[in-house]
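## retry 2 of 3
previous attempt timed out at serialization; input unchanged, resubmitting
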Amino acid sequence: MIESLLPKLFWIVFGGGFLQGGISAEIQVIKRYRRLRGYQSGFCTIQYKAVHEIYGTMSTLSSSGTSFNTVRTTSYVPKFEYVVYTPDGKEYQAQGYSAGISGYAFQKTAQRIIDQYTVGWVYPCWYHPSNPTEAVLTQHFSMWIFLFPILFIGIGGITLLIAIQNLWNN
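## retry succeeded, writing output
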């Protein structure tokens, strides 16, 4: 009896995990977006710019399903350091580019962003009103960031519904 329930329970846990993970990710994206929309506009002088390489690893299940393959990954991050000038005349050191995507798969994508700015020049920027060291050079927030967690919510929800329906039907 229990052996016949295990596969069904697996799919319930699997679907529930995807659903919970997608909901958690979507909540974080919405919080980040709302926080960014509360930033004040100001001006920033670029002091440093470069493309940084971030190394990591990604594990994938082999085609046989019996082992994991580990692949080394590289992402490219536009890195900026700048001085934020607030309307009250104060100056703050800050760093970063955006509140959205932190890295890119291709070096040339990050380089294109870096090339739009010149060290020593002043540009518009946005900063957190109670912590001006938290600033960004762009308020661009890709809609894909909102949609990606919804994919997990959809997969998890559908898997969970089908698994529960199969459990009740048997």
